[in-house]
Amino acid sequence: xxxxxxxxxxxxxxxxxxxxxxxxxxxMSEGMASxxxxxTNNLVRLYQAWAEGGAGxxxxxxxxxxxxxxxxxxxxVLENDDHIDLFKQWAEAGIKNNTHFWMQINHPGKxxxxxxxxxxxxxxxxxxxxxxxRFFPKCRALSPEEIxxxxxxxxxxxxxxxxxxxxxxxxxxxxxxxxxxxxxxRHNQREDKWGGPIENRFRFLSEIYHAIRARVGDDFPIGVxxxxxxxxxxxxxxxxxxxxxxxxxxLGIDLIEISGGTYEKAALFxxxxxxxxxxxxxxxxxxxxxxxxxxxxxxxxxxxxxTPTAMNEALKTGATDFIGIARPMALYPDYPNQLLKxxxxxxxxxPIKTGLSFIDNKGLMEITWYSQQLERIGRGxxxxxxFSPLLSLIITLFKNGKEVFQKRRV
Length: 410
Ligand SMILES: Cc1cc2nc3c(=O)[nH]c(=O)nc-3n(C[C@H](O)[C@H](O)[C@H](O)COP(=O)(O)O)c2cc1C
Fold this sequence. Notes:
Helix content is 36%, strand content 12%. The protein is globular, with a radius of gyration of 20 Å. The protein is α/β, with parallel strands linked by helices. It contains 15 helices and 13 strands.
C-alpha cells in the first residue's frame, strides 16, 4: 500500500480552515427532529459519535429553510433563533475531536411526497414521470416574489447556522430538490430571468450564494452539493454541471461535492452503474476526472467509496480532494478511524434488497434501512449490519403504514 493520502490535512484557499484529513461524512437526512422540527438529544448523540469517528468534515442531513416546505415529518428546520440553544448543542457535539461540522440547507420544491406539505412549489408546474405521479402532490410554479423570499430564507438559515456554531454550510443543489429543479431544463421551463439558458437556470443558485455570502462574511466556508448529471432525458447534463461549477468557482465557492441522480433516477446509490464503475467503486469518478482537467475547485466526490485502496487512488490521480462517505457511516460511525488505520476488512455494506422488485428498484430500502441504523446510534445502541431488509420493511410498514414510502427522501 502506498502512502495514505486520506490522512493528509487540507487547507481551504483564502480561509483559515484546515481539515485534519480528507474524509467527509456526507449528508444523511436523519428524520430525528422533535415534533417542532428541532434538534433532539438523540440527534446530538448521533453527531457526537460521528465527530469521534474521525472524519475531517461532517455534513448534517438536510435542514429545511422553511417549516412550510418540509421534505419529511421529522426534518430539522432552522428559520429563526427561538431555540438557538438546541442548535448550539448540536453544533458543539459535531465539532468535537477537531472536526468541522457544516449544516446542509435545503428546500424540497416539488420533490416532497403526498401528505407531508399542503402544497408543493416548483420553478414550473411540471409533474413527475407518470409512474411517480401518484406519490407526489400536484405542484404550482413559484411567483418571482416567492423566489426572492426563498433566496433570503437560505441566507437567513445559513446566518443562524453560523451563530449556532456550525463551521460552514452546504447548499443542497443536487438530487432533484428545488435548486436542482431550477437548474434542470426539464423541470424549469420558465420564460422569465429564472429560466431558459443555463445562465438563467443557474441564477437561483448564484443569488442564493451571494445572499448567503452577504450574511455570513468572507471567512465562513460555503459549499454546494451538485449533480454531475440528473441522468434524465432533456435534464441537467454534464455540460450544464461543468458550467455551474466553473461559475461557482469564479464566485469563490469553497467546496463542491459531486453526486448525481434524483428520485426519478437513483444514480446516487449506484443504481444501474456500469461494471467498470463498480470496479473503481466511486460512481461519478469519470465525471470528476474530466472536471478536474478544467477547474481547480476543491472537490468532494461522493457515492460508492468503500476501501482505502480506491480512496487513495482517487486522491492520487487528483480526481478529487476529499472522499465523501454516507452509508458506511450509518453502520460504522468510526469508519474514518478504521480507514485511517486501514483496518476495514470486514465491512459489510451491500445493496439493501427485500426481494420485492418494485421496492428494491427504487432504492427506497437504502433510505429506510439506513435511517433505522441512524436511529439506533442516536439511542446509544450499536448498529445491526445483519438486520434483515425484509424485516426492516415489515417493521416500517407496521409502525407507519404504507405512507412511509411517501415520506422518505434523500
Ligand atoms: C438514509 C440516507 C439519507 C440521505 N440524506 C441525504 C441528504 O439529506 N442530503 C444529501 O445531499 N444526500 C443524502 N443522502 C445521499 C448521501 O449523501 C450520498 O450521496 C449517497 O448515499 C451515496 O454515498 P454512499 O455510497 O457513500 O452512501 C442520503 C443517503 C441515505 C442513505
